[in-house]
Amino acid sequence: MEKFSFVPQYLTRNGSPWFPIMGEMHYSRTDRRFWDESIRKMKAGGVDIVSSYVIWNHHEEIEDEYDFSGNRDLRTFVETIQRNGLYFFIRIGPWSHGEVRRGGFPDWLFSKGFELRTNDPAYFQAVEKYYRKIYQQVEGLLLKDGGPIIGVQIENEYGHCGGLTGAAGEAHMRRLTALAKEVGFDLPYMTATGWGGAVTAGLLPVMGGYPDAPWDQRSGELEPSGNFIFTHERNDHNIGSDHHVGFGLNFDPADFPYLTAELGGGLQVTYQRRPVATARDIGAMSLAKLGSGVSLLGYYMYHGGTNPTGKRTSLQESRAAGDICDVPVHSYDFRAPIREFGQISDSYRELKLLTLFLKDFGEELCRMPAALPESNPLNPQNLTDLRTAVRSDGKRGYLFVNNYQRRQVMADHERTVLTVSADGEELHFPSMDIRNGDFFFLPFNLPVGNGTIRTANATPLCRLNDDATVFYTDQKPVFEFSAPLEGHKLIVLMRDQAKNALKCTIDQRQYLILTDGLALMDHDAITLHSWGVPSFSVTPDLPAVPVGFEKVSSSNEFQTYRSLTPEKYVNPRQISFQQTHADAEKIRYEIVLDYPEGISDCLLEITYVGNTAVAATDTAVITDDFYAGPPWQIGLKAAGFPKRIWIEIQPLHRDEPIYLEKWPEFQEETVGEIKSIRQCFEYQTRLSSK
C-alpha cells in the first residue's frame, strides 16, 4: 500500500516529496455517461487528484429519502477515478457553499429546532447520520483498503463564512473530525479551509485564490488582486468577502506546507457580477502561487457542470433561498479548464505548461523554498516595479517573473538582464524585453542528461524518455551550459505549440503529441479528439503509421500526420435560426439542427446580447446563461443530439445594476438578440497500427 504524509515544506508519497495537481469535479453536476472520458481529460491535463464535495441536498433533499443513483452515484464515480489511476479527495461538509442552495444544507434541516453549524448535540447527531450514509457509499474504496481515497476535507470555510470562532469553533471542528474518524474516514490527509480566519483545529490547512470575486456585492471595478503578486502571505482577503467573519490565519504557516485546494480554475458568474476569467488570468495567478512557494496546485473548479434538478426546489444558490448571491439555475460552467459540456478551454491548455513541468520536475521543486528579492513589490497596485521570486535549494532552481495583473496595464521592462545568486556566484540570464502581460519562469543550474544548463531564456516543459528535455519560449532560444549535455537532446517549442502538447505513454515509450484537438490515453491506445480533420505532430516518431493517416511532413524532431480522408470531416459552419416571439420580457428563437455522420459531439457557439438566456428542447431545459460577453457554448451530445432547440433571451436594460466587463451597444432602452450561431463538430479517432 502506498504511504502518504507531509512535512512542513511539502506532501510526501512513499517517503519522497510529492507535488500533485488537484482538480475539482462534482459528480452530481456532471453526466455519468461521460465520467470516464472527463476523468481521462483531467488526467491528460496533469491532474493527479480529483476532488469533490458530497453535497447534502443533492442526496437527501427530502428527509430520510437518500438518492445515490444516476449522476449522484458517488461509488461509481470513485471507482471510475480508481480505474483511471488517479486519487480522490472527498469533501464531506456538512456545509459546502459551492454555489448550492443554502450551502448544501437540505431545507428540512432548518426546521429541526437546533442552530446549524453550532455545538448543539442534536446538530452533531444529524451530521453523524449523514456522514455514515456517505461512508456506506465509499466503504472499501479508502486508501487503507487499496482504494483511491487519500484525503477528506472537514466542513468548509468554518469560522470564515459562518460558524463559530475561537475556542467554540475549535471544539466544533475537533468534534466533526472525531465523527468522521469514528464513521471510518481515517485518511492520511485530513484538511480544513485555512483562509480568512477559518478554524483549522490542527487539520492540514488548504488555501485558495481567485482572479476576481463574482460574489462581491459591488458593481464596479475591483481593486487589483493580491493573487498576482509573489508573497509569503498565504491568505486571500477576497474569498468569501460576501460573508466575512474572520480575516487572518488561525494556524502557524511554518508548521504546514503551502497547499491550495481552491485556486480558481475559472469563475462562476453571479447575477450582480459577471467577470470573465481568461486563460492568462488563471495562468499568471498560478505562476504567482508557484513562485510564492506552493507545493500543491488545487483548482476549483477544474471541470464545470450542470446543477441537478431538485424534487421540490431548484438547487442553485439564490437570494430567494436566503443566500447572498444569485447564480444560474442550471449552468455551473465556471469557465473551468474543462467546461460544462466537457469542452476543453484555453485555460486547460495554459495550465498544462505548469502541470507537465511539475510531473517531471515537481519533486525537486518541493525541496526549493521560495525567496523574495528586496526589489519585489508586495502591493498589487504597484504596476511599475517588476515582480520576481526565486525557488532554489541554494545551488539550482528557478527564477519566476510575473508582469501580469488582471485588467491592469503593467510597465514594460526593456533590455532587462535578470540575475540570481546560486552556490556563491551571481548568474545572469540573457537580456530580454519583458512586456505588459508577460509571465514566465526560467531555470538556473538545471541538470539535463549528464550536463548542466547554467541559464536559459526558455522554460522547461517536460522530460522525454530520459534522452530529451522539452523547453518553450517565444524568443530566440539562448542556453548557457556549465557542463556539456553529452548527446542529450533539447527540443524547443514556441509557447503556443507547448500549450497544445500532451504526453502519452505506449509500451513504456513516451511520446509528445502536438494537436489543436486533444490526445487522450484510452487504455493502452491514443484517441484523438478533433474539431474537424484529425491531424497531429509527434516526437519520437510512432513505430508505424496509424491506420487512416499519412505522414505529411517532418521538421524539428516532429513528424506530422493527417487523415487520409479529410472529406469525411465537416468543418464548423454557420446555421440559421428564426425568431418566433418577442415582447418586453423575452425573445424566443427556434433553431433547427442536423448532424453529419460519425461525430462524437456537436457544440453550438451562440453569439448573443441580453441579460439571461435559457436553452431547451421540446421536453427539457438543457442549460442557461447569464450574459457576460463571450459566445455561449452548448454541447448537444448529452441532450441526445436534438433536431430542434429553443433559445429564450431576457432583454438587458441599459440601467441594470450589474457588473459587466464590457457592455453591449444600446439603440433603445433594452437589448436582446442572437447575432450568430456556429455549429462545431467533434470527432474521435483511435490511433491504431492495425
Whole-number total of structural domains: 4
CATH superfamily of the largest domain: Glycosidases
- What overall geometry do the principal axes of the alpha carbons give? globular
| Distance, first to last CA | 38 Å
Helix count, per DSSP?
A: 8
Jot down its keywords.
TIM Barrel, 4 domains, eight-stranded parallel barrel, six-stranded antiparallel beta sheet, 46 strands
Account of the protein in words:
By secondary structure, the chain is an alpha+beta fold. The protein has four domains: 4-363, Glycosidases (TIM Barrel); 368-483, no CATH class; 501-530 and 533-568, no CATH class; 573-683, Sandwich (Jelly Rolls), CATH 2.60.120.260. 14% of the residues lie in helices and 33% in strands. The chain has eight helices and 46 strands. The strands form twelve sheets. An eight-stranded parallel beta barrel has the order 4-5-6-7-8-9-10-12, surrounded by four helices. Strands 15-16-17-22-23-26 form a six-stranded antiparallel β-sheet, covered by helices on one side. Strands 30, 31, 35, 38, 41 and 46 form a six-stranded antiparallel β-sheet that branches. α4 runs parallel beside α5 (166-183) and α6 (279-291) runs parallel beside α7. The chain is globular. The two termini are 38 Å apart. Mean pLDDT is 96; it is low at 241-246.
Summary, kept brief:
The protein has 690 residues and is an alpha+beta fold.
